[in-house]
Amino acid sequence: MKLTLPHTLAALTLAASATAQADIVVIVNPAAPALTQDQVADIYLGRSNALTPLDQPESAPLRADFYKKATGRDTAQVKATWSRLVFTGKGQAPKELPDSAAVKKAVAADPKAIGYIDKSALDSSVKAALTLN
Amino acid sequence: MTLKPLAWAAATAALALAAPAHAADGGPDIKFSGYGTVAASTLSDDSLGLTRTQTQSKGVGNKLDIGSDSRLGLQAVVNFQSGFSFTAQVEAERRIQSVFGQDKEFDPEVNWLYGQYQFLPSMNVRLGRVALPVYLFSDSVKVTYAQPWLRAPLHIYSTQGFDSIDGVQLNWRDSFGGLNLSAQLTHGQSKSTFRAGGQIVTLEPDVNTAALTAEYGDWLLRLARSEMTAPFPPFAKVADKYTSVGLQYDNGSALLLAEYATRREPSQPAPVNMPLAKGDYGYVGAGWRFGSLLPMLTVSKGHAELLGSPTVSAHAVTFSLRYDVAPNVSLKGQVEQYQANDSTVFITPASDTHKVQSYTVGLDFVF
Fold first, then answer.
1. Which of A17, B42, B117, B225 has a CA between 20 and 30 Å from the CA of residue B94?
2. How far apart are CA B184 and CA B199, in angstroms?
3. B140, B130 Cβ separation under 8 angstroms
4. Mind listing the pLDDT tens digit for each residue in B25-70?
5. What is the ipTM of this complex?
6. Is the confidence at residue A124, as pLDDT, over 60?
């Protein structure tokens, strides 16, 4: 089958947006209520200790994407924010887990935990509290 | 009475109380972390001696100085299950010794050493040594990686020479809708050797501080009051009272920081009939992030009335630049302009107000 130029462009555009604009879901335990973006930002910037935040690895593009969308801050700004809390004993930076499967497992097991994963990894073991796109 | 043994008592108590939890849960969670700064500074005038803190008596002159702003801090947190934790932090920097001008470089000191018990989800109590939380950044002022500047505004952060306090601290925090509130009460005794009017003084004041912080989205407001009371021969009692308000707005791109503080003392008895010290200090800073770059402009002012010294009102302008090189390293530069008569920042201020420039570059890191 021969692809026309518009078809090819459309396919490329779709592919590009799928990788760069992948939806991220913030997940909580099935027993926990949904959250607003402000609540998620407060938890991940250490302003609120309502839930225990979990992180993806520092090298994961998903992590930088999550913080940009949820808090409007880049990785370095988030690090600076947590440094102030860590070295005054006000909190420990979110625990880092190796991948989405580990985050899901931890959230499913703990009603106080909150995490974020790629939307494609969502299943019924956890609840989608907020979708960021 | 010195409360130093109290810190060790707290440490021992925390360990003893946590021992059963240790056995039950298979081990406490131990975290090591650290922070540091490597910086070089110079001042356009060699005769004034700029210092970042009253606990230094060797000032920056017109030679390149790598000791005034450089430091290294190490922290260990042992988190036992069941709400007990133990924190220790040691920090090394240039510090005053017994001879004026002969400070020791990278002199280590224990800044934090406390046992903490979280007895409610919203409340904990700490026993031992904690940083003295007088101003907005006081308890993390040495962690400059967490600040936009390489050197926090001296008109606030060099005004008192006490870094930590041995005693008890009560911390409360809770959320009400989007409003996050926290309160902190600290009581105990501090001890510090610092410079005062060209002399080296060691004081052990009784200290009480109360602070209330409100965070709402990108806004933060902090109100605090600190009282330090000590005999200061030949005066039987000096009671310094600092009242301060701090404001921060940070939406990820725009950054606004402002603080204002007053220092007041009751008058000394006759024949002095006046307080030994009185001061008003403040700054306003604004910056904007361009990707990893954060340029910021800060203006500050200090008004100090010290018994036996001329009253000085002096202002400063600071241009600072932060560049986040990596997620845990920032490269910073700072140019500051002071008035030569500024008694808050200079060891030997001039009598005139000619302009003096300070230049500082450095790296901040955390690990």
1. B225
2. 33
3. no
4. 568 999 999 999 999 999 999 999 999 999 999 999 999 999 999 9
5. 0.90
6. yes
